Amino acid sequence: MGRVIEDFLAGDGPALVEAALRQASADEVMPRWRQLEAHEIAEKRGPYDLVTVADQGAERHLARSLGALLPGSVVVGEEGVSEDPELLAAVGGDAPVWIVDPVDGTWYFAHGEQGFAMLVALAYRGEVVASWTYAPAHDVMAVAVRGGGARVDGELVSVGARAPGADLTVATSSPQYISDAEHRRLLRLETPGVARRNTGSAGLEYLRIARGELDAVAYTWENPWDHAAGLLLVTEAGGVHRTAGGVPFRVTGGNELPFVTARDEATLGHILGLLGGGA
């Protein structure tokens, strides 16, 4: 990675990003939790794909603060890309990139539930080098730096080993967001030895894998803001990820889907095998 990024991550950079996330939450997100008016919530592609004034305000807040922390960096956020899809190309460019999901799990946020997170990942030339996952309703902060491990509230975490004989717990893409064909493929996991459920916030599901509370996720979409932070968190906690094409997931896109993230190779191979991928 570039020397500027190395110095940033070796110094106060990670703590400064944490502070920026907490401030964006305090200014834009939590004051609106359970306080949203109807006109402050809008549909993007349907009743389950929502955007709120909190999403928009938090992304603007983070764009300002993160850009100032690392001069020359660019911000690729979910709401910005929704307005200008060409911004997505920056993820694979030569400038440091902040990949931002200002409110991951907006449906839960908009309905006053706790299952949402704020996600930030720092990428360089298509590789994620650091990530931050913040669950404001629980005040839980997870940080990962490539080669430096994964920490939750400052404590190192590990995916650990699965309990012998226990069913594999797997979260998958929810049917309301995917095609019937994708849903039918995921239903192949409805088999003895696997306990499948629909996913909540992707960021929080990755956090559960990193903490050893969930065995795997299987997803059918590749928006980098949903996955970049969590994939590094899981990897640094000892987990693995691979696409249906048998290669690691790329935040720059072009992945063969679905892809699976799991606590270990045995779990990942079994789930991909059931889905019919992973050669």
TrEMBL record:
Q: Which organism is it from?
A: Streptomyces smaragdinus
Q: Which cofactor does it need?
A: Mg(2+)
**Full protein name:** inositol-phosphate phosphatase
Lineage at the top is: Bacteria, Bacillati, Actinomycetota, Actinomycetes, Kitasatosporales
State a single Pfam family of this protein.
Inositol_P
Keywords, ordered alphabetically:
Hydrolase, Magnesium, Metal-binding
Does the keyword field hold Magnesium?
yes
List the EC numbers from the record. Answer: 3.1.3.25
Q: Which SUPFAM superfamilies match?
A: Carbohydrate phosphatase
Chain sites annotated for binding Mg(2+): E78, D101, D104, D226
Q: Which reaction does it catalyse?
A: a myo-inositol phosphate + H2O = myo-inositol + phosphate
Instruction: Identify the enzyme class.
Output: hydrolase
Q: From the Swiss-Prot or TrEMBL record, what is one GO molecular function term?
A: metal ion binding
GO biological process terms, semicolon-separated: inositol metabolic process; phosphatidylinositol phosphate biosynthetic process; signal transduction
| Xref: InterPro entries | Inositol_monoP_metal-BS, Inositol_monophosphatase-like, Inositol_monophosphatase_CS
**Record keyword Magnesium present:** yes
